[in-house]
Write a structure and sequence with these properties.
The chain has 465 residues and is an alpha+beta fold. Helices cover 16% and strands 44% of the residues. It is built from three helices and 21 strands. Strands 1-2-3-4-5-6-7-11-12-15-16-17-18-19-20-21 form a 16-stranded antiparallel barrel. It has a three-stranded antiparallel sheet with strand order 10-13-14, with no helix packed on it. Strands 8-9 form a two-stranded antiparallel ribbon. Strand 13 and strand 14 form a beta hairpin. Helix 1 packs across helix 2. The chain is elongated and about 150 Å long. The two termini are 81 Å apart.
Amino acid sequence: MKKTAIAVAIGCLLVGHSASAKSTSLTVEQRLQLLEDRLISAEHRAEKAEQEVQVLRTQQTTARKELKEVQERVVVKSETPTTETAKNAATPALSLSGYGDLKIYGDVEFNMDAESKRGTLTKLNEDNTTEQWDMDGRILLGVDGMRKLNDDRYAGFSIQPLADMYGSMNLDDAYFHFGQENDWKVKVGRFEAFDMFPLNQDTFVEHSGNTANDLYSDGQGYIYMMKEGRGRSDAGGNFLLSKQIDDWYFELNSLIEDGATLFSDNDNVSANGRTYHGREMEKERNVIYMRPVVSWSPMKELAFSAAMESNVINNAYGYTNNKGEFVDQSDRTGYGLTMTWDGKKTDPENGVTLNLNTAYMDADNEEDFTAAANALWKNFELGYIYAHNKIDDFEKMVCEDDCIITDEGTYDIHTIHASYLIPNVMDMNNFNIYLGTYWSKIQSDEQISSDDDRYGARVRFKYYF
């Protein structure tokens, strides 16, 4: 009704204004028609004005809602001025460069050992002592960095410092690598190359510590495992090239190091410690081991691998004879074959992992042959290692304690090792306990001693984080 009254009033005013401005020649019907047309026009204008007012109100309501939502999302942060921050020493923040991903991880590994004799036959890098209990272990903290492009090209690094229970700081891996995923790779630094003598779930047989150092303990026997040129040395570094082509993998690793560190310290023989065949080794220059590997995987579970390693530098180390002449002892070339069946890749619960390994070393005045087999099913592992060594030249040496080999000849070493995994301790899938044991016996073409076998047991605590 209001709208109609307003329209009538406006129409009357317009009619009156028009009547005063125009002649009175119009008929009554014409004037009434003109009045009706103007009333209709006024109603249309009023409706349009009301619609515009309604649209404006709707827009205002929507704007208020959006403003409220923005206010709820915004986090108001109070920041201390730079001058106050400097005065009050605010808590520092971790800032990343933004160049790729960064991963921090680690593991804890502590062992409790019981051994008949340490440092002989299977563990060749410890001092000789009588039967005893022992503890050792370390905590590893790893940091990996990686930047990867859309075409799978990448570059990155890895560093793994170690803190052992005796208060020393050491280093596991430290390397830089780049290449293209599942294609080619370049790797340089401190690391281990391809494993040509896998021992499966071993806890007490593998040489721990520096892989390429302290492997040969003079007078104790040698189990050659294709590790002399593999790397992770504390006296040198690696440079590795690799290529993946379908089921084939090719690798060439070079290790540059002080070659005399292959021989462990033996204070019973020499004041300087490092001896080979009873003679003290003198370093002239670094060795360069070249270690090519070819591996073929015709099936997901099956792989065959072949490799060799050889020092290509002459007169790297040796000894001075009675004539004052330097005698080279650094000529060493090794060969290895291995076959691996890893059934756990397709059946993690009941699959069997089987390794067959063999290695042969042709060195100055010595030949070493090793063969091994080991199998892992569920959480139980069992393995056997056979080593046959022949020494053609040996200088007579007098050992203060526990030297087994004191002359040239042939000798065999038989080693049986086993381990059992107790997983998910206290329902934690990152906490495991390993039980390991071994027994080893040395036999020669002549009676060595009545105490020529070794045995031991270990409990290992392994925690990942």
